[in-house]
């Protein structure tokens, strides 16, 4: 039975990632006192502070470092226990996703989803400095890229608005396909690549051995988050919907959020526990934060009033 660890929080939660069931991070919106930045040490949730104000949209670990990205082109880089420092790649860009193969091959993606187009951006980090990467025509014409994931330094994927999916081959980015509703989530393993999103309804595709398969769930709303680990894949989306991939497709789970809210990100830990975050992430204000856990442990609820102080 899923455990609701936090609900109706003053700020939406948009990202979750960790190294183990007892070592994970949650990030989210800035409700007025700084972005949500929470660390779980296996016993308690600890509210952390960072170098600046503004929403944080994603968090991932690369090597021994943890990276969080968000509004104002901000990249927070810290150790596994915090101590964040900030880089600003471009103050007019919102960064929505980050992924790295190692400490000298890290990619961050973003843009401005409210723009008419030509705002999508990709930045790379070589261990010392951030640089903007040239995009193919189809991607550069899009408003934003929302997600990035890869298998190695020379196989990285990014996707976003206008149905754009691009691939890095170690030398340059090239368009895989474009046109249509936005993509919001990428995940994969050595055999499969999953791509999800949607406009009115859900889109969910799997690529295996270079062939794409349409696996969208019937009558589903858009999907915003994906993760896969050990052959198990989980997708989350609007209205709190959740799907787990079984042998014949994606099996739905019970939904508990109103249609105006969503589960926005998901992370599967090494024990099989599933951590899901979201809230009112579709329109401002970014509030009504929610944290849900489904697994073998019994983690504590988030303390009320846990907001960073600056």
Task: Please explain how this structure is put together.
The protein has a 4-stranded antiparallel beta sheet, with no helix packed on it. Strands 2-3-4-5 form a 4-stranded antiparallel beta sheet, with no helix packed on it. It has a 4-stranded antiparallel beta sheet with strand order 6-7-8-9, with no helix packed on it. It has one helix at residues 137-140; strands spanning 3-9, 13-20, 23-30, 35-40, 45-47, 56-62, 65-70, 74-79, 82-88, 94-102, 105-111, 121-125, 130-132, 145-152, 155-160, 165-168, 173-177, 183-188, 192-198, 202-208, 211-214, 223-229, 232-237, 242-246, 249-253, 262-268, 274-280, 287-294. A hairpin with a 2-residue loop joins strand 2 and strand 3. It has a single domain (3-294), classed as Methylamine Dehydrogenase, Chain H (7 Propeller), CATH 2.130.10.10. Helix content is 1%, strand content 56%. It is mainly beta and 310 residues long. The chain is built from 1 helix and 28 strands.
